[in-house]
Every structure is written in structure tokens, then in C-alpha cells.
Design goal:
Layout lengths: L5 E2 L1 E3 L5 H9 L2 E8 L2 E9 H8 L5 E6 L2 E12 L6 E9 L5 E10 L3 H4 L3 E4 L3 E6 L7 E5 L7 E4 L10 E2 L6 E6 L2 H18 L5 H23 L1
Parallel strand pairs: 1-5, 3-7, 8-11
Antiparallel strand pairs: 2-4, 3-4, 5-6, 6-7, 8-10, 9-14, 10-13, 12-14
């Protein structure tokens, strides 16, 4: 069960581009928090606190707005095109007893049997969408690859889900695969091409025969001309 990071926020009384620029000069990030049926509340978030919270990989945080502690979900982050610093962030208020949809990371656990034999473990899906209450959001989901043999896949349906967590991503999407090393795949492909080449008829001889026939005809004509 997740432990939510707390963000230091203040209500912004000024609006507009100039006000947002002044907020950033104070080492804070302009933000807004939305909630269904309620007008968006403009906020400013302490930059250091925000960066620390985002590094945890979580998307839901605890804030105090108008003397009320509440949970907010990160909906959108805007970055500066040159410095890549956060210049604005949108939050959505969520209720503790209300299920929400969000993406969480997927990690593999264990060592695949195919990997022990020299295969490569390839992760094709890094996150999935789930639905659950804020307090039940896992930091990540695990998929056990221990029993995977060479050239096999595991799918979304194979991911272990905590209690009361619903999977929204289609269950037939592949998550991880154990594949043969690339060098071996190339050797197999080369062997296949070589076999096909050996079995195919030698078509180069026919044009040579045709050319020889044409040359003989030309010589016959020349000889006939000489005799005449």
C-alpha cells in the first residue's frame, strides 16, 4: 500500500503569465487543482518538494488546501522546451473512498529458465492501467518470469494483482518475452537462406545456353555468306 508524499502548496492570488513568472522566480511551480463540479483552484508548489515527490514514481500526493488535507492525482506536467524544468502542473482531487484509474509500472521478478540457458529477457510493456482507491495504489506491479522457457511470452493476464485492484489494460497484450540471442537468430536465418539457395535451380546456365545458341546461329550465317 502506498505511502503518499506530502507537497507544500500555497493558493495563488495572482493569475496570468506575469504572475506565473514571478512564482517561478520564488523557486515555486505554478499549479492548479481540479475537482468535479468545483472551480479550479490556482496553486504554487515548492519546486524542491515537487521534484523530490515526483522522483518516487508516485502520481498521487497529499496536499493541504484551504486548511484541508486531500489527495491529488498528477494529470499533466508541462516542461520548459530548453531547460526541461517543470513550468506548470495540473492536479485532480481524488477522494479516499472513490476508485480512480491510473498507470502503474510493471516489473519482472525471478530469473527465467530460458535466461539461464542463454536467452534474453525482453520487456515489451512497462506500465498498465489499473483502477482502485487512492490508499490501495501499488507502487508497481510484478510479473513472475521464473518458469519462462526459451521463445515464450507472458501477458497482462499473468500480472499479479493486489486485492481490490482492477486491471483495465487488455489481458492479451504481451508484457515480457524470452528470446534467443540475436547472434543465434542471425545464424538460423543464414542457414535457412543457404538451404533455400542450394535447393533452388541454377537459372544462370540457361541464359548461357541461349547465348551459345545465338552465337552458333550468327557463325552459321557468316559461313553461309562466305561460301556464297
Amino acid at each position: 500500500m502506498s505511502k503518499f508524499e506530502k507537497l507544500n502548496v500555497d493558493i495563488r492570488k495572482e493569475h496570468g503569465t506575469s504572475a506565473a513568472r514571478r512564482t517561478r522566480l520564488q523557486n515555486k511551480v505554478p499549479a492548479v487543482v481540479y475537482h468535479s463540479g468545483i472551480e479550479a483552484i490556482p496553486l504554487s508548489v515548492d519546486k524542491i518538494s515537487l521534484n523530490k515527490a515526483l522522483r518516487t514514481g508516485q502520481m498521487i500526493f497529499e496536499v493541504n488546501v484551504e486548511d484541508k488535507n486531500q489527495f491529488v492525482l498528477v494529470k499533466e506536467i508541462q516542461y520548459h522546451p530548453v531547460t526541461d524544468e517543470i513550468i506548470h502542473i495540473d492536479f485532480q482531487k481524488v477522494k479516499e473512498d472513490e476508485k480512480i484509474s491510473l498507470e502503474v509500472a510493471v516489473r519482472s521478478s525471478g530469473e527465467a529458465q530460458g535466461v539461464k540457458l542463454g536467452g534474453l529477457l525482453v520487456q515489451m510493456l512497462n506500465s498498465v492501467t489499473i483502477k482502485c482507491k487512492p490508499a490501495e495504489i501499488p507502487e508497481f506491479l510484478e510479473i513472475d518470469v521464473t518458469d519462462m522457457e526459451m521463445n515464450t511470452n507472458l501477458f497482462v493476464k499473468d500480472i499479479t494483482l493486489p486485492t481490490d485492484v482492477e486491471m483495465l489494460t487488455a489481458e492479451d497484450i504481451a508484457v515480457v518475452s524470452v528470446q534467443e540471442p540475436k547472434q543465434e537468430q542471425e545464424e538460423v536465418a543464414e542457414d535457412t537462406e543457404s538451404s533455400e539457395t542450394d535447393e533452388s535451380p541454377d537459372t544462370d546456365e540457361k541464359p548461357a545456353e541461349d547465348e551459345a545458341t545465338e552465337e552458333s546461329s550468327e557463325e552459321a550465317k557468316d559461313d553461309a555468306g562466305d561460301e556464297g
